[in-house]
Amino acid sequence: MLRSSLCYVRLVTTPKRFLKHKRPGDKMIPPPHSISLTVVGNGRAGSSKSMLIDTGVCRYLVNCGESTQRVLAEYRMKTSRIQHVFLTRMSWDCTSGLLGVALTAKAAGVKKLTIHGPTELEHLMQLTRPFTDCKTTDIVMSEIHEKYYTDDAFRVQSFQIFKPTNVNEEPVYKRRKENLGNVSESSVFIYYFQPFRTRRKLIMSKFNEACIPASVLKSGEIQAVINGENLILSDGRIISPDEVTVPSPPSKNMLFVDCRILITFLHLYPMNTFSILFKPRSLVEI
C-alpha cells in the first residue's frame, strides 16, 4: 500500500543551553543557525497539506488537517516543541487535526499554544476547549491579521486574500444551498516568514593569527566580536570583526501560499513585483 504523505527530514543540532520549552519572559536567545522545513503531507488522498518548521528551539506547524498528528508520530517528529500553528483557511482540510495537536501539546507539557489564522478560529477553539482541558496548556488566538508576529527566529506577516467576485454571478438568495457553506473559505491567509540573520561566525585560524589571548575566547568579550562590535584587548589593540569573523550567510525567506488561490495571487501582483518581493526558491505551495 503506497503512502500518500511525503516527509523530508533534516537533522537539526540544538545547543544544550537552549530550553526545551521557551516560556514568555525568558531571556532572548540568538537566532538559530539552522532551520529545517518538513513536508508532513502533500495534500493527496488520505493526507493533509501540512508543513513543519523546526528551528531547534521552537516548531511551527502550517495547517493542521486530519491525520497530521498520526504522521508526526509515525515519522518520529516530536510535537513537544510545537508552540505555533498557522492556518491558511477556515476549512476541514486545515483545521480537523487541531484538536489532536492540542492534546499532544498538553501531554508534552507545552505551556502555551498560539493559533494564527482567520478570526472564526476563536469560536472553534471555544467549542473544543472542554475537550483539551486547558488547565496545563494555554491555547490562545493571535492578532497576526492586525500586526506581524515576531519571536527569536522569525518575523511573520500575514496577507489576507479574498476570492474575486464575478459581476455575472447570481445573487446569494438564488444560489444553491450547498454553496452557502463555502462562505468561510472565500478568504485565505498567506504567511511570509522572514528569518533573522544569525550572528557572525568566528574563524579560529584568524583568531590565532591575531595573537589574541585564549582567555578572551573563554570570556564574554568574544561575544562583542560575534555581534559585530570591535574588541579592545588589554594591550590597547583594537580587533575589528572582519579580522577574526565572517558574516553569516543570509537566510532564505519562506512564503506559504494556498495553491487554490495561487493563480489569483499572481494575477493581483505582476510577475516582476512577485519576483522582487519573494524569490521563487522560497515559494512553498500548500
Tell me what you see in this structure.
By secondary structure, the protein is an alpha/beta fold. The protein folds into 2 domains: 36-198 and 249-285, Metallo-beta-lactamase, Chain A, CATH 3.60.15; 202-246, no CATH class. 24% of the residues lie in helices and 23% in strands. The protein contains 10 helices and 15 strands. The chain has helices at 68-74, 92-95, 98-108, 121-132, 204-209, 214-218, 222-226, 241-244, 262-268, 271-277, and strands at 36-42, 49-54, 59-62, 82-86, 112-116, 138-141, 149-150, 154-162, 187-195, 201-202, 231-232, 238-239, 245-246, 254-257, 283-285. A 6-stranded mixed β-sheet has the order 1-2-3-4-5-6, with helices on one face. A 5-stranded mixed β-sheet has the order 7-8-9-14-15, with no helix packed on it. Strands 10-13 form a two-stranded antiparallel ribbon. Helix 4 links the parallel strand 5 and strand 6 (138-141). The radius of gyration is 23 Å and the shape is elongated. The model is unreliable at 1-21, 175-184 and 280-285 (pLDDT under 50). Its cofactor is Zn(2+). This is ribonuclease Z. Belongs to the RNase Z family. Its EC number is 3.1.26.11. Keywords: Endonuclease, Hydrolase, Metal-binding, Nuclease, tRNA processing, Zinc.
| Low-confidence runs | 1-21, 175-184, 280-285
What is the count of DSSP helices, taking H or I runs of 4+ residues? 10
Provide mean pLDDT, rounded.
Answer: 74
Basic shape: elongated
CATH domain topology of the largest domain: Metallo-beta-lactamase, Chain A
